[in-house]
Amino acid sequence: MLKYILPLVLFSVLAVFLALGLNLHPSEIPSPLIGKPAPAFSAPKLQATARDGGSVAIGREPMRPPEEKLSPADLKGKVWLFNVWASWCASCRSEHPILNQLARQKAAIIVGLNYKDEPEAALGWLAQLGNPYDVSIMDQDGRIGIDWGVYGVPETFIIDKQGVVRYKHTGPVTPDDVQQVFLPLITTLQAEN
């Protein structure tokens, strides 16, 4: 009798786990950063790399003009979105029109993290598809992405005025995400002191 009941119990347990797994939302992957200060970085601005235009020779050593950089400290007192993107990312292309619409609403500053990409490809992509970012920074070696716990692109974080990560969205942003999650949270955070 036990040899008939045991497989039935195991099957029932597996069916429950499968049902629970099917109800999970991959865009809601928990992040250990929620409620903690945004990880520090100091990264060159993407647009500044295009303006630098190469190096200047002084004596024998070529010297690059100083790079414009951005860090989370520069954004203290502001609510901002941190969107991880790349020109080689197909999902980034699908979310890009939604980010352009969100940028027109001027609900919050949008900072782009150009992840493991070439500056020329990234700038061309923004020129072709529009630029929703108030500023975009470069992470060619992926170190900033590691500090932020990036699983892959695209990912979007919402950071409050004190520089605390309040939300993480994995995968492409949809219009429903903007209306149901992003804008209500941004409105709440903008009202905080």
From TrEMBL:
The keyword Disulfide bond applies. Residues 32-191 form the Thioredoxin domain. It is a single-pass membrane protein. Its main location: membrane. Pfam families: Redoxin. Gene3D superfamilies: Glutaredoxin. It is found in: Cell inner membrane. Keywords: Cytochrome c-type biogenesis, Disulfide bond, Redox-active center. InterPro entries: Periplasmic_diS_OxRdtase_DsbE, Redoxin, Thioredoxin-like_sf, Thioredoxin_domain, Thioredoxin_ResA/DsbE_sf. GO terms for biological process: cytochrome complex assembly. One of its GO terms (cellular component) is plasma membrane. The keyword Translocase does not apply. One of its GO terms (molecular function) is disulfide oxidoreductase activity. PROSITE patterns: THIOREDOXIN_2 (PS51352). PANTHER family: THIOL:DISULFIDE INTERCHANGE PROTEIN DSBE. Belongs to the thioredoxin family. DsbE subfamily. This is DsbE family thiol:disulfide interchange protein.
